[in-house]
Amino acid sequence: MNFKILHNDNLARTAILEFPRGSIQTPAFMPVGTHGTVKSLSPDELHQSGAEIMLSNTYHLYLRPGSEVIKNAGGLHGFVNWQHPILTDSGGFQVFSLAKLRKIEEHGVWFQSHIDGSSHFIGPEESINIQKALGADIIMAFDECTPYPSTYEYTEKSLELTTSWAAKCREIELSNQSLFGIIQGGMYKDLRERSVSEITSMGFDGYAVGGLSVGEPKEMMHDLIRHTVPLLHVDKPRYLMGVGDIVDILTAVEAGVDMFDCVMPTRNARNGTLFTSQGRMNIKQSSYRSDLSPIDSSCSCYTCRNFSRAYLSHLYHSKEILSMRLNTIHNLHFYFDFFVKMRQAINENTFKEFKSYHEGSALKLPQGV
Amino acid sequence: MNFKILHNDNLARTAILEFPRGSIQTPAFMPVGTHGTVKSLSPDELHQSGAEIMLSNTYHLYLRPGSEVIKNAGGLHGFVNWQHPILTDSGGFQVFSLAKLRKIEEHGVWFQSHIDGSSHFIGPEESINIQKALGADIIMAFDECTPYPSTYEYTEKSLELTTSWAAKCREIELSNQSLFGIIQGGMYKDLRERSVSEITSMGFDGYAVGGLSVGEPKEMMHDLIRHTVPLLHVDKPRYLMGVGDIVDILTAVEAGVDMFDCVMPTRNARNGTLFTSQGRMNIKQSSYRSDLSPIDSSCSCYTCRNFSRAYLSHLYHSKEILSMRLNTIHNLHFYFDFFVKMRQAINENTFKEFKSYHEGSALKLPQGV
Fold this sequence. Notes:
The structure is a homodimer.
Chain A: E1 2-9, E2 12-19, E3 22-26, E4 28-30, H1 43-48, E5 54-56, H2 58-63, H3 67-72, H4 75-80, E6 86-88, H5 92-97, E7 100-105, E8 108-112, E9 119-122, H6 124-134, E10 138-140, H7 152-171, E11 178-183, H8 189-200, E12 206-209, H9 218-228, E13 238-240, H10 246-255, E14 259-261, H11 264-270, E15 273-276, E16 279-282, H12 302-306, H13 309-317, H14 321-347, H15 351-362
Parallel strand pairs in A: 4-14, 5-6, 6-10, 10-11, 11-12, 12-13, 13-14
Antiparallel strand pairs in A: 1-2, 2-3, 7-8, 8-9, 15-16
């Protein structure tokens, strides 16, 4: 992996992340393909929509179909036929949020599969070994995503566990995979500082900020982003995990974040909520039933070029699969187009104006919700 | 519409049906897009899979989104963005099979919507007027699909109703739409003969055989196909409604049928049943979980070129939408490829051998069922 910063506009920056499988322009949005596929899209469509990298979930793929099947298929790239970069998470977040009957030990976590109740153990070694079998271009250290709210004492203990696990992950030999460390520390600035200091001292290929967007107030999240991100090495990629709201992204990019992942555009699409240059709209609303205009007349996506709101309304109400697919294509196009424009603004030193303008339209009340 | 017979191999024939929107090579398979979309596919994918014409259901589109919305969108072609020929059925079959509280009168049928229970009346005039608004290239006369089993007396009365409705449909002026008459007569050969005589005397653009594949034994169906189809005008297209099993298609083509529609390839795909040159297989079967070969190594479809059985098994078990889509692409490709080869066999006067060979592989027990 090669990371080249192209331009700085105050703390915001554009860069390029280079891998043998392709380059990623940052700030970058990584759509989520939990089971190796971004729901409803083929890999071709995903790439055509503008995605340069996809995120997949280690926890889900480990449980089904299992890392052995994927390894034998030539890794996740071969298995799902996505020939561009992939990032896998460590599985930690899902072990803590989806699995049942967790038991946290020094070396990892015992848990029961949410699919069939079977018993499993994942710790730092197991996580990295699974991620080696999956073969993603970027893999993540195993951490505990500290829940919100947590006491100072719990957060500190959780941070120490994350640090010790990070050290174990760092020791494992890797070839052709980049390993990112994860900063925790909950909502406490001094613990965030301590986590940055401990994790960055280990020398990872990049750094993620985890444990945000877990239920805390927006202002608290923004404050912690502004406090934590500038402490990270300037010359390494910075990834804000699980944050995808447009306003949050703008705040994070302003603080120097390079990478994002979130289910927001894709999950919303499946529920009929569409992003437009005029704010959100919900295709369920009855006024769209006979509306022959596209979702967004300024949008050039496949959906907007070919189909009307009336047809999308019909597909939604008829529970047609094509509804989810056309909506997903549109919402992802909206996100990638937003990131293209954001990078352009940074390159032209107009990010501040860009941020003000888009905070305005993103905050507009959803139409029809 | 222009219908040109290209070649006869005994009663089987190849022909071309020409419309301003495109030509259809027959024998032809028409995939079913009930709500105007073949489930999970975009119009582009449907055309790329080999479809030259799509069937849509008048009953469903009349109830939702309503013919007015579709008319305002430039007809069904504009609404769903399918720029090739479309055939709409008359709505009769669904009124009799899906709607509640039917009341059959001389001029049509009162029924309650299966969606919201609202009350509607459709007779021959209403059906043709809805189909004019939808704007399909081929539209169908309104008929009663006689249920199985029915007594001779009921079947005769039903036939008379269908004849009187056909006459009313025939009187309505049409522009740029071809109207097909429908033969009924249940399982009684003399009533089939009477229906052929009455319906063909009205001079429709083509003729459909309805009321088969409604639960009767296969041999009875085949016997009636062999008896009825050769009675129809040789120089008009012949359409066997709702029949899509490979063995039934072979029997019907041998008797001179030109057009077919059925949900078989698409519905089976969504349930994980796949058609292959070696018979059927079910992707649910556990042996496919680690099977890295394609569905059918002799198949050139998008799914077989890009994905393994192991991945399709994973998508199916993970309930991913992409599962339905990739399976549908494969099954439709199988059907269209089968029709290409069948037309070639007719053109080379080897249809008899083709039929024997494919009856053999189609009758193989489904793998994994």
